[in-house]
Design goal:
InterPro entries: RNaseH-like_sf, Znf_BED, ZnF_BED_domain_contain, Znf_C2H2_sf. With 233 residues, the chain is an alpha+beta fold. It has helices at 2-9, 14-21, 82-90, 92-96, 123-137, 147-156, 165-188; strands spanning 31-32, 38-39, 53-58, 61-66, 71-74, 103-106, 116-119, 195-203, 208-218, 224-232. The longest helix has 24 residues, at 165-188.
């Protein structure tokens, strides 16, 4: 009877005892990611912190996976982002690859041998290289919005913020205007004459006609130069 009276006087829920004996249940440590995960779309998440995380579904839980150290943290929408920012401050992998430290790598050359040089990540140069790749290979602008292409780039360099389709289009037009101005200055400063040629052809599969206008001249160093001035269809 005395024990029952003590239990009534001092009730203590079992779940509260579990929380006291196991405090890690309320604040679990980040866990390493495994293979049983599904990448989810970020949707309307606009916080810049998501440039360093991807949202995945692991079992029945929604997690935020760090692009740098691959650890998993709470990723539900009601978890806010303060814990993600705190993780970025202490993430050692992010500090190592913060873009300020040079790493050894092979420089890209079209011909000849590759050399091992110390390189440093430059977001502006990488964005320009992406625009050049789209121009030279005729890639679709929507490629930058493909989930697994963005995931691929994130694995190569987590600090690179992949531009949207409209931003990429704007970069290409800016590059066009810059190249146009550069070519006009080269031709205007040449002391010799300029020959203009046109090429016309029809694409059989598309049934469309194309025309290209090209300028040819010998520069002041006696080197033959050719520049595409206009391309119409």
């Amino acid at each position: 009877m005395a024990q029952e009276a003590a239990a009534v006087a001092n009730p203590q829920p079992q779940n509260q005892q579990a929380a006291v004996t196991n405090p890690e249940a309320q604040n679990p440590e980040p866990t390493l990611a495994g293979n049983d995960e599904e990448v989810l779309d970020l949707g309307n998440l606009k916080s810049d912190v998501w440039n360093h995380f991807i949202k995945i579904k692991k079992g029945e839980l929604i997690k935020a996976k760090c692009n740098h150290c691959k650890k998993l943290l709470a990723g539900e929408s009601n978890n806010r982002t303060s814990h993600l920012r705190n993780h970025l401050k202490s993430c050692m992998q992010r500090k190592i690859h913060d873009g300020k430290q040079k790493v050894l790598g092979a420089n890209f050359v079209t011909k000849g041998k590759r050399e091992i040089v110390a390189t440093q990540f430059n977001a502006a140069v990488s964005r320009q290289d992406l625009a050049v790749a789209v121009i030279m290979h005729g890639y679709s602008l929507s490629m930058v919005e493909h989930l697994y292409f963005r995931r691929f780039l994130s694995g190569l360099q987590p600090l690179f913020s992949v531009p949207t389709r409209n931003t990429l289009k704007s970069d290409i037009f800016k590059m066009y205007e810059s190249e146009k101005s550069r070519i006009m200055k080269l031709i205007g400063g040449n002391k010799g004459r300029v020959a203009i040629t046109t090429d016309m052809w029809t694409a059989i599969n598309q049934k469309k006609g194309y025309m290209a206008v090209t300028a040819h001249y010998v520069d002041n160093s006696w080197i033959l130069r050719s520049h595409l001035l206009r391309y119409d269809m």
